[in-house]
Amino acid sequence: MPYDTQNIFAKILRGEIPSHKVYEDDKTLAFMDIMPMAEGHVLVIPKCEAVELSDMPADYIAAVFSTGAKSHGSAAQGI
């Protein structure tokens, strides 16, 4: 399946849809979920076109997990 450049996450990355950013670097964006399953629910997305995890370069996969660890503390503090 090809990457859809009009998906909601691509629009968030381009700034077409607002988000409450928790953390951002050159490879990832972490932001608060608008329909959280729990308090502090954060979504982490890569800044590369990927439909599945296997489509992502290894450095982006590592960055997603690293960002998840970094953003956990911020979300728990309610930032």
From TrEMBL:
Residues annotated as domain HIT: 8-79
Domain of life: Bacteria
GO molecular function: catalytic activity
Coiled-coil residue spans: none
Gene Ontology terms describing biological process: nucleotide metabolic process
Pfam families attached to this UniProt entry: HIT
InterPro entries in UniProt: Histidine_triad_HIT, HIT-like, HIT-like_sf
PANTHER family, alphabetized: ADENOSINE 5'-MONOPHOSPHORAMIDASE HNT1, HIT FAMILY PROTEIN 1
Protein name, UniProt field: Purine nucleoside phosphoramidase
Natural source organism: Faucicola osloensis
